[in-house]
Specification:
13 strands
């Protein structure tokens, strides 16, 4: 929290330099303290110098932190307090879901071996529950958490409550893909895709929008446009990036989600729930291009590498170090 007698507005670009004098005047208000956990050792060394050197070095360090973390704006209100709004780190998001999908040429063998396939899966996971069963596609659920599907030309397993390490998900995915490959006699996959969805909830829509804009992935012009003097409501950004053997589709958007629950009238112990969530959703689909031999695919290793890349390179889109 910040307490200061001077209104300080820090902005990137042309406004940042005129803010330094106000920052130096009120640096003890806690602005620098926001990063003392991350840069504790540096601050400890700086504080051993005389007061002139301390101010000078903290000036340089503060500028480096602001620039390196790509901070869009900070506000210190007169005689007030507010949370510092900075760049986003993937660790502050919740991993909402993880899914692996494999695609293949039409496996007509499914029509004759669907029952045997799911019997093998049920043998591994006795808690398996049937969802739908049709000639071209069948779906099951597991432990109120996993969603499994096998179709004529694709199959997937999704974890709707994954832990951040994805340990359980990768192990189950390995076993599921093995059963599919063997039961349907699939020699190669035409596509292997790993999709993760992260979400961050904000107290109100405007804070979610501001966080989206702070990534600098989109530019919001000032003034009247298309005859409208308005504001951004639900911004969205997306791209598809492809190399020679792999590609990725990325989407970042602000989303409103309503939760409505009305219990049966006869159940007096439960009360109605009506709640609206304001979320920033980060959606990444990492996939292969071309044919992948089932015999050469190490599912756990491939997922581990893909997840590592997602966590490593998300800073380029969320604006984190």
């Amino acid at each position: 929290m910040i307490k200061t007698s001077t209104a300080v507005w820090l902005a990137s670009g042309q406004n940042i330099w005129r803010c330094w004098f106000g920052v130096l005047e009120s640096w003890q208000c806690g602005i620098l303290g926001l990063w003392e956990g991350r840069y504790a050792k540096i601050f400890e060394i700086i504080n051993t110098f005389d007061w002139i050197a301390v101010i000078s070095l903290k000036f340089v360090l503060f500028y480096w932190i602001i620039h390196h973390n790509r901070v869009t704006y900070y506000a210190c209100q007169i005689s007030g307090s507010t949370w510092l709004e900075g760049t986003m780190d993937l660790s502050t998001f919740k991993l909402l879901s993880a899914t692996l999908e494999v695609r293949y040429e039409k496996a007509f063998r499914l029509w004759d071996y669907s029952g045997r396939l799911w019997a093998k899966v049920a043998n591994m996971w006795p808690n398996l529950k049937i969802g739908t069963a049709q000639p071209n596609v069948s779906t099951f659920s597991l432990d109120e958490r996993y969603q499994l599907s096998v179709a004529l030309d694709k199959s997937h397993i999704g974890d709707t409550a994954p832990i951040s390490s994805l340990k359980d998900f990768t192990e189950k995915t390995k076993d599921f893909v093995k059963v599919i490959s063997q039961s349907l006699e699939i020699e190669y996959f035409t596509r292997v895709g790993f999709r993760t969805v992260f979400v961050k909830v904000f107290p109100d829509k405007q804070q979610a929008v501001d966080a989206m804009i702070s990534t600098k992935l989109i530019t919001i012009p000032d003034g009247v446009h298309f005859g409208i003097q308005g504001k951004v409501l639900l911004p969205k950004y997306g791209l598809r990036w492809e190399g020679e053997s792999v590609g990725v589709t990325i989407s970042i958007e602000v989303r409103d989600r309503k939760i409505d629950f009305d219990p049966p009238a006869a159940v007096e112990e439960l009360t109605s729930i009506h709640h609206e969530l304001h979320e920033l959703v980060y959606d990444i689909d990492y996939f292969t291009l071309g044919i992948v031999s089932t015999g050469q695919l190490d599912v756990m290793e491939w997922l581990s590498q893909a997840y590592h890349l997602v966590k490593r390179d998300s800073k380029n889109f969320l604006g984190v170090i």
